Amino acid sequence: MAIKILLLIVFFAVMIGVGFYSRKSATNVNDFVLGGRGVGPWLTAFAFGTSYFSSVVFVGYAGQFGWKYGLASTWIGLGNAFIGSLLAWLVLGRRTRIMTQKLDAKTMPEFFGKRYDSKALRITGSAIAFVFLVPYTASIYNGLSRLFGMAFDIDYKVCIIVMALLTAVYVIAGGYMATALNDFIQGIIMLIGICAVIGAVLSGQGGFLNALKELSLISADDVAVPALQGGQGLFASFFGPDPVNLLGVVILTSLGTWGLPQMVHKFYAIKDEKAVKTGTVVSTFFAIVISGGCYFLGGFGRLFDSPAIYNDEGGVIYDTIVPQMLSTLPDILIGIVIVLVLSASMSTLSSLVLTSSSTLTLDFLKESVVKDMDDKTQLIVMRVLVAGFIILSVVLALNPPTFIAQLMGISWGALAGAFLAPFMYGLYSKNITKAAVWASYIVGVGITVSNLFLKFIASPINAGAITMLVGLIIVPVVSLITPKMKKEYVDDIFECYDETVVVHKTKSLEE
User: Fold this and answer.
1) Nearest to residue 345, comparing CAs of 84, 54, 68?
2) pLDDT at residue 470 in the model
3) In this structure, how many other beta carbons lie within 10 angstroms of the beta carbon of residue 217?
4) Does 388 or 216 have the greater pLDDT score?
5) What is the 3-state composition of the chain as percent helix, strand, coil, each rounded to the nearest 5?
6) Mean pLDDT over all residues of the chain?
């Protein structure tokens, strides 16, 4: 217990210290929200990776999907790495940085407002972002508190409140730069921690080969696909017992990052070309290790079957599977796990609260309520709203409505369903119309919210994946049949891609 507490004290001291150290880098709105668009390659890459993966992945998703799909759930981690990280950087990274600087856009709703010349799109986008970031935040608290309960036997509510207070301190003090610096530190902890945990868990099962053998002996009696029910060895197979639903999870958790405000926001703050190239490689490697490692570990969840993971009706409580797997580890490793998941969670939480507070201030209050708000007042309001957003998410987290994975599915489905298509197409095509953006907003929020009540798509995960794919189809279709934007306005925006720049021979071989 002393070791675990000591590790936590050191971790908290470093996080808060970085927050106060970064105060000098958060003296105006641009610095507070974007770090002055001067964040280097390694900080940008780690900020992207650590914002991507939190306790939701380590506890909620790894537990639930490892149980359902076995070792095939590792495909989710690989999808996160190559679609959610590598392709996201290649397709969105450079163009996002160039166009958002041209538009002087600091948030995703502000991008929509200026790219499509619509104040209403900006305000509506800010409302969508704020509302649907709250359940995602609550899911992070939920996952972390379960691990704290296992390690320290501390009340769930105490865990949530302490974590919220610590995050608030360093985000309010240092803004984006404090978040980026802490993300780098937290990312290093995550890389070391996940490797140590996987090694220890498999060692406790007699090594990898023995664990694989034991997993292959488990019969797939409770899988959703009738044709595969009762099959043996499916949990250790290449595609697992339910490949179709597995694909839905890969799409939601991988493609979803392309439309999440807190993820795309990292591209706004890129410093230079080197940051793009290094960020692409480092964030992909980070995702392979962290996400691939989490789902690989979760794939062995059925080897830890015990009464502790079932409710009174005999149903599996998925959020308890990973804590059950870790409960047998030595104290020093449990301490490392706590710091690992705390790192992942606080980095994601800080990114969420910064995104939500800046969006609400710049895109809603300044645009529709206090239009003459000066820079200093905006900074004060954002810091107040950071605290307000954290309080709101804590209230929801104290009485969470469903499993972690479902909370995240709802949030990602609505946000990515509404934002992904108009954002990506808006970076590449001059033909996307305002009506198409409105259609994407309606589809993203409409399908997600209606499915909560009508449940016409059984899984919120699949609902989120379908919502994103529908948005990618509906935006170009609506753009074909609705009035185009003024050619002069759009041409002026896209001129940013045609500017000539001079570089050294070390950067380019062009004459």
Assistant:
1) 54
2) 94
3) 10
4) 216
5) 80, 0, 20
6) 82
CB 180, CB 43: distance < 8 Å: yes
Q: b/e string for 298-337 if b means 16 or more Cβ within 10 A?
A: bbbbbbbeeeebeeeeeebebbbbbbbbbeebeeebbbbb
Inter-helix orientation angle 460-481/434-454, to 10°: 150
As a residue count, the chain comes to 511
Is residue 63 situated within a structural domain? yes
User: Taking a C-beta distance cutoff of 8 angstroms, is the pair 14, 365 a contact?
Assistant: no
Q: Give a yes or no: residue 415 inside a domain.
A: no
Give the amino acid at 139. Answer: S
pLDDT for residue 403 is more than 70: no
- Of 5-14, 25-34, 316-325, the range with the lowest mean pLDDT is 25-34
Host domain of residue 389: 2-407
For residue 65, give the nearest of 194, 262, 280, 223 by alpha carbon.
Answer: 223
Residue 468 one-letter amino acid: M
Any domain includes 392: yes
DSSP lists the bridge partners of residue 316 as 310
> 375 near 32, Cβ under 8 Å?
no
Alpha carbons 297 and 194: distance in angstroms, whole number: 9
- Which pLDDT score, from 0 to 100, does residue 262 have? 82
Distances 435 to 329, 441, 443, 474, 492 between C-alpha atoms, Å: 55, 10, 12, 11, 21
Q: 219 forms bridges with which residues in the sheet?
A: 232
Q: Does the residue 387 lie in any domain? A: yes
Alpha carbon dihedral 129, 132, 138, 142, in 10-degree steps, equals -120
Residue 144's pLDDT band, with cuts at 50, 70 and 90, is: low
The per-residue b/e assignment along 366-399, b for 16 or more CB within 10 angstroms, e otherwise, is bbeeeeebeeeebbebbbebbbbbbebbbebbee
The mean per-residue pLDDT over the stretch 491-501 comes to: 88
Write out the DSSP string of 224-240. Answer: S-GGGTTEESGGGSSS-
The residue-averaged pLDDT of 167-182 equals 76
- Ramachandran region of residue 370, left (φ > 0), alpha (ψ -120 to 50) or beta? beta
User: How far is 125 from 360, CA to CA, in rounded Å?
Assistant: 10
Secondary structure string (H, E, C) spanning 25-49? HCCCHHHHHHHHHCECHHHHHHHHH
pTM summary value: 0.84
Locate 232 and state its tokens: 């043996």
3-state class of 222 per DSSP? coil
* CATH at 327: 1.20.1730.10
Our count of domains for the chain comes to 1
Spatial distance between the Cα atoms of 49 and 283, rounded to a whole number of angstroms: 6
